[in-house]
Amino acid sequence: MRTLVYFCKNSWWDDRKARKVLLPLAFAGLEDCRTVLVNAPPAAWRLENRPLAWHHPDAAMNVLTPVRRLPGQRLRPIRYLNQRSRWSMVSSCFRQDGNTVVVLSDPEDEYIACIARRAGYPCWFDWTERWDLYQKSFSTDMKMPVYRMDILNKVDGVIAVSRELEKEAARRVEAVFHLPNAVSDEFLARLREPESIAKPAEYARIPEPRAVHIGSYNPAWIDWPALVAAAGRLPQVSFCMIGGGNDQSVPTKLPSNVFLLGRRPYEELPSYLAHADLCLLLYRPSATSAGDPTKLYEYLAAGRPIASTPHPRAMEMRQWLHIGSSPEEYAEAAFMALNACDRARADAVRAFAAGHTWSRRAALLRDTLFEQDRNENE
What we know:
Layout: E1 2-7, H1 19-28, E2 33-38, E3 53-55, E4 61-64, H2 76-90, E5 100-104, H3 110-118, E6 123-127, H4 131-136, E7 157-160, H5 163-170, E8 175-178, H6 185-190, E9 210-214, H7 224-233, E10 238-242, E11 258-262, H8 269-274, E12 278-281, H9 285-288, H10 294-302, E13 306-308, H11 312-316, E14 322-323, H12 327-338, H13 343-353, H14 358-377
Parallel strand pairs: 1-2, 1-5, 2-4, 5-6, 6-7, 7-8, 9-10, 9-12, 10-11, 12-13, 13-14
Antiparallel strand pairs: 3-4
């Protein structure tokens, strides 16, 4: 039995189901594989009403929630003590049998990497973002911590979500594996027959046609000027922003055909996409080029036309997208995309998305990590 011990930067219980939850779950769905997913530790005095240990009913996956005992996580000595405690809480749930690999997803978990390797476990880092790019795009009153990447010197290998991160990791780590994001098989299956999905109730007050964006509102990585230009170019289209942010995340003046719908649970997203006429990818490449937009794969699964900024991953899939580099070009791309959809193209787009599922990614991860481990042992 192959065991993936995945230390999640976030929590299984978060509404937003992204790579650091969907990839371990897909791995647990493979034959002869199981997952131990370790949640980010909440402070002992902030425990939610969640079990500390939980077994997924539909997959060979245990979800553990270790507790952080000490405050001041930014201080290295306290971080070390918390991470050592976190490891001791979860290490009894798996064994060192030559078929267990530890994967970390938080660059601050450098001490867990050291402890795991000393215990004889191969340890990899799942690198999915570069916070320094985000911070460069923030205004002075919006700040985000930039993590030091010391962890790259303390792991056996790096799983890189993008080619940019793959190249950067290769300068410091010998074993690097490029593994892009994907769409869940369940998400894809639900969108195979979009006509059978019930329309969201709030769509009743939003006129058709509808263009949908899913994700953060944060201006550090979302191109609001491109959206405003598209809304002005297409006043008959309702632009629906599904995601989150605060008052500083949204321009003070928006066209009347822009609707801020706020956050929605992951399980409800297929219904919004099934009844959308256009999907919007609004990432600023200057801030997000090191990442890989999960929503892009979800848009493709819906088979809807997509208007995108020139993000590196979007450029690799340009045959399925309409791309605009400036706000004016983006507005034109949205216009062209909205008028380029037909049933045959939608089916072709969904077929393309079927080649980019989390189950396929998990199989590649299994073959890479455990083959690498066997080679080193030999």
